[in-house]
Design goal:
heterodimer; A: 246 residues; alpha/beta; 9 helices; globular; B: 372 residues; 14 helices
């Protein structure tokens, strides 16, 4: 398809003898919420790190926003936002200072930084916490903030690596509301998760088992093909044969 | 440039917010200078000695009194057995045993050679050498006095060469004048070697570096953001240290302080480059710390801070040419104590500049935003 914004072709990553990601191929369309499912250790994070330019692939090809992951990863970085599964804003800086730092790094003007951070804090209802150090905030708030910071520079694609890990159900729900809102505004969302109920919120999902993509399609389509009532059942059917992890 | 400004802002905020590190960074110069400069001394004080006086004459007592009167020697105990003396040495109760044989004063009066024996604990060779030197000169002095006081033999001075030493640049042989410039070097080295490198590894441990690596930030921007704050802090500490040296210790400032800061600026790039390089090959602060310590200890011990480089074996002296601390200690002492100027030290500055030109690009090259 012409308007694929992420394109992976036999993308592979080995660590020594271990093939973490094994010849995966897929495309993500612009504006889509693409769910990247798999058990722990299936290779989701490794695949995502290759697409975000943090890790150089062993073989295969991939393009993100029209740029090659081998030679143009710095161009890719201008087009994407990223939220890692480890919380990675600075805990010893305040909410405001973190926003300012990343705004500055992405080349926003001082005026833009002011406007953006004002709007962002208002949307999140965090105005009173803006002068608080991030380390003092509850995890749910931190995650929502990290997500917003990843979107500060209006990226074309945002990569979310298990964004809702360890977060309570209500915050998870709010988080997905945020994701929908961004997707409506035209940002492509690439999200890894191992919460199967979250998969139902995605436009399309791929299921990774032992480094390979074993299934790819819309949640409804996958359920039909595997004659299952939920994505969880689909996943269990597929993951039963897995060698790795839990 | 703007990106670097934001990064610097962030680093300074974090440094000044780190309650564990901040006091160390700013009290370190004071404590190191004051404590080390006074404590690390080669001047001899209070040598405990054991006396075995078989002679029991007024002459032997005078000799002992003369030793004690210098203030360097302290009569710890006495006995009439050489074995007791050896035992005291072995128990570390005495550093020296002075044995005066039976016919000491009689031989002197008869104009015959008279011997005394000094046995010195030489586990610490340097101290033993010093004890020997001090004792010898005191006994020689004593010898001369006896001769002048109308000993039975030659009244006139024995002819021979007379050496009159004149000590330059540190006329009173003040140990502190020698130590303080060297300790100043150690001070800025610690900051350069440990803090910036450690700072990067800490970000790796916390996972925050990944968020930076996924931004379009450039390598040189990131590295400038990491090096510059500690470069500034180190030069600031040098200023504090120099002020303490000048006004606290009365160290002579013969040369140009500006020149020293210029050299320090280059020197910092070398040690920071090394710290940075270590950070690119390690994953945890513990590993980085351990490796940095290894280099630091070798550099300090072989850099001429305590023991002169000139007395090291040849291979070690050649290795020293790769030791940045050696260069800077030498420059520091030359400039402060001798008033050396640009032409006197340009070859040393060249050495440092060359090291910076090698290690810094190597470290920047090793630093990767993407892992392969």
């Amino acid at each position: 398809m012409a308007d694929a914004i992420i394109r992976a072709d036999n993308l592979t990553r080995k660590f020594g003898d271990f093939t973490a990601v094994d010849h995966i191929s897929f495309e993500v369309q612009e504006g889509e919420i693409f769910g990247f499912l798999g058990a722990n250790g299936a290779g989701k994070t490794t695949a995502m790190r290759m697409l975000t330019g943090l890790l150089i692939p062993t073989s295969g090809d991939a393009e993100v926003a029209g740029f090659d992951v081998y030679s143009e990863h710095e161009q890719i970085k201008k087009q994407i936002g990223y939220m890692s599964q480890r919380f990675s804003l600075y805990e010893d800086l305040t909410v405001q200072e973190n926003i300012r730092l990343y705004g500055g790094i992405y080349g926003l003007s001082n005026k833009e930084i002011r406007q953006k951070s004002g709007a962002l804090l208002e949307t999140l209802g965090m105005q009173e916490m803006s002068k608080k150090k991030i380390g003092a905030l509850p995890l749910g708030w931190k995650q929502k903030l990290a997500f917003s910071v990843a979107l500060l520079h209006n990226p074309k694609i945002v990569f979310l690596d298990e964004p809702t890990g360890g977060v309570d159900p209500i915050t998870r729900r709010q988080f997905w509301e945020q994701i929908y809102k961004v997707a409506e505004e035209g940002t492509t969302v690439f999200v890894t998760t191992h919460y199967m109920d979250e998969a139902e919120y995605c436009n399309r999902v791929s299921i990774m088992v032992d480094g390979r993509i074993d299934a790819l399609g819309s949640p409804a389509g996958l359920k039909q093909r595997y004659r299952a009532d939920s994505i969880e059942e689909v996943f269990v059917q597929l993951a039963r044969g897995a060698q790795r992890g839990d | 440039m703007r990106t670097i400004k934001f990064l610097l802002q962030k680093e300074f905020l974090q440094i000044f917010r780190n309650r564990g590190m901040l006091p160390i960074i700013f009290f370190m110069p004071v404590i190191q200078l004051v404590v080390l400069s006074y404590a690390a001394t080669y001047e001899l004080k209070e040598v405990d000695f054991h006396l075995v006086d078989f002679d029991q004459s007024s002459t032997s007592r005078e000799l002992v009194a003369k030793l004690q009167a210098t203030g360097y020697f302290n009569l710890e105990s006495y006995s009439f057995s050489t074995e007791e003396g050896v035992r005291k040495l072995r128990q570390n109760k005495a550093n020296m045993v002075l044995t005066v044989p039976h016919n000491f004063s009689r031989n002197l009066q008869l104009g015959q050679p008279a011997d005394v024996q000094i046995a010195i604990d030489a586990v610490d060779g340097t101290t033993a050498g010093l004890i020997r030197g001090y004792t010898e000169s005191i006994i020689q002095d004593f010898n001369r006095e006896i001769q002048l006081a109308g000993g039975p033999i030659s009244q006139e001075r024995s002819p021979g060469m007379n050496i009159i030493p004149s000590f330059w640049y540190n006329a009173n042989l003040d140990y502190i004048n020698y130590m303080v410039p060297g300790i100043l070097v150690v001070l800025v080295s610690m900051i350069g070697m440990f803090l910036s490198g450690m700072n990067i590894v800490r970000e790796r441990e916390m996972g925050t570096i990944e968020q930076l690596n996924v931004t379009p930030i450039k390598r040189y921007q990131f590295i400038t953001g990491k090096l510059l704050p500690f470069w500034i802090i180190a030069l600031f500490e040098l200023a504090v240290g120099l002020a303490i040296a000048r006004f606290g210790f009365d160290i002579p400032f013969e040369g140009s302080v500006l020149l020293l800061f210029f050299v320090a600026g280059i020197y910092m790039l070398v040690v920071q480059g090394l710290g940075l390089f270590i950070s690119t090959i390690t994953h945890t602060q513990q590993q980085a710390m351990f490796i940095a310590w290894f280099f630091m200890v070798v550099f300090i011990l072989m850099g001429g801070l305590f023991t002169p480089v000139e007395s090291m074996p040849r291979w070690a002296q050649e290795l020293t040419l790769l030791n940045p601390i050696y260069y800077f200690i030498k420059i520091m002492r030359m400039v402060l104590l001798k008033g050396a100027g640009w032409t006197d030290i340009q070859h040393l500055i060249g050495g440092l500049a060359l090291m910076a030109a090698v290690i810094l690009p190597a470290a920047v090259f090793r630093y990767r935003k993407a892992s392969s």
